[in-house]
Write a structure and sequence with these properties.
With 100 residues, the protein is an all-alpha fold. The chain has 5 helices and no strands. The longest helix has 18 residues, at 82-99.
Length: 100
């Protein structure tokens, strides 16, 4: 699906303000912090594993879809594009939890 018009040029500051508090970055930091809250170093390792399993693959799926032209942008701002992504990622998360 082609975009109706090219996106406007974006400054580096605007990009950082938009992407800085993105949930994938927050989750990647929160998982190890939650693991560390148990008071043992092994919790940090489990937190990093959880971040690697539940943050990186969904980010790569969205990134590949945007680069391949399946989705309009990395925020999935077109509502009809969200359901297949949400369904697929929900199945992925369920499979990971079942396998653990």
């Amino acid at each position: 699906m082609a975009l109706p018009h090219p996106p406007p040029p974006v400054s580096l500051f605007a990009r950082r303000v938009t992407d800085g508090p993105h949930p994938k970055y927050l989750l990647f930091g929160v998982f190890p912090l939650v693991g560390a809250s148990g008071g043992q170093a092994v919790g940090v390792g489990w937190g990093l594993l959880a971040a690697a399993v539940f943050v990186i693959p969904p980010s790569l799926v969205v990134h590949a879809g945007v680069r391949g032209g399946r989705w309009s942008d990395r925020h999935l701002s077109v509502r009809t594009q969200r359901l297949p992504v949400a369904g697929g990622l929900s199945l992925y998360a369920t499979a990971v939890v079942v396998l653990l």
